[in-house]
Amino acid sequence: MIRALEEAFERPFTVQETQLRLSFSLGVAFAPADGMDAEELLNKADTAMYSSKGSGRNNFGFFTPSMEEQIRRRLLLEKQLQNAVLSQAFTLHYQPRVESISGRIIGLEVLLRWESPESGFIPPDRFIPILEETGWIKEVGRWILYTACRTAASWQNQGIAPLRVWVNISGRQFMEPDFFSMVEKVLAETGLHPRYLGLELTESVLMQNVEGHIDKMKQLKHLGLRLSLDDFGTGYSSLAYLKRFPIDEIKIDRSFVDGVLHDENDTAIVLTILGMARSLDLRVVGEGVETDAQRHFLENNLCHEMQGYLFSKPLPVQEISDLLLSQARLGQRK
């Protein structure tokens, strides 16, 4: 039965000529092991459902007693996160994007960080999904965009050569009806020219409402900013859709870069992405570059930009400001 549900949700359906896909999270509880009446079984199944969400959307799980402790910790984390949202207790880190040919820093990816007073540093993959599920991502996302744009404008006022800041946009945030007007307002308030803002979108997000998202992307492009397709190769977009997306670049997912030197499949995928991007006149960014060998492979195969710990880890605003002010050049040939 569960498999039948999975297969049903895997198939796209059409509403008013728009192709849509749904995901689901499912929890399962059995009688008499998990409960003897409907209310208890539903509570246990609900617990299993929330646990399955923690493993990613479009998933299912069976109830186990240990899940109740997991849910308790999750509710505690939600409470701490809600306080952080109300007080804007987040910070932004910036990871340089380096031009392959020159080794110059030509852009910065903006990354959200959170250190809870009670629990210390919380990894983004633990709290960002909660922000999306609760809808708090809309408020936090606007704060990220505003702060990043204000900081980029401030750097220009300090005499630093203009750099493009790249902001990751969540699916929940991108699908908000007022997303375009919010971006437009932030740019006006911060004074940052649109050419110095880039938005990173994942293909899994764009495939949820292809036609509607293409129209929104065209609006953003008309505004003058740049669009990047993040984590390329990990989703399920087809070439037919890819050529229609008004994007400027593709980011090769770090999982492929990590295996590019020792896994024939990863090598083939990376070379295919690079060749396809050239034919579509798209820039390519390799992320997660950690070794000189990975860097030379991407460079020799005409990858335009790279980012990763080989060049710099994500840095807090003061450290990245000092780096930019010193006009340091990362990734010089050795």
How would you describe the overall organization of this protein?
This protein has helices spanning 2-10, 38-53, 66-87, 124-134, 137-157, 171-174, 179-190, 203-206, 210-223, 239-242, 254-258, 264-279, 292-300, 317-325, and strands at 13-15, 18-20, 25-28, 59-62, 90-99, 105-116, 120-122, 164-168, 197-202, 226-232, 249-252, 283-287, 305-307, 315-316. Helix 2 crosses helix 3 and helix 5 (137-157) runs parallel beside helix 7 (179-190). It has 334 residues and is of the alpha/beta class. Strand 1 and strand 2 form a beta hairpin. The strands form 3 sheets. It has an 8-stranded mixed β-barrel with strand order 5-6-8-9-10-11-12-13, surrounded by 5 helices. Strands 1-2 form a two-stranded antiparallel ribbon. Residues 328-334 have low confidence and may be disordered. The radius of gyration is 22 Å and the shape is globular. The protein folds into 2 domains: 22-64, no CATH class; 80-325, TIM Barrel, CATH 3.20.20.450. The termini are far apart.
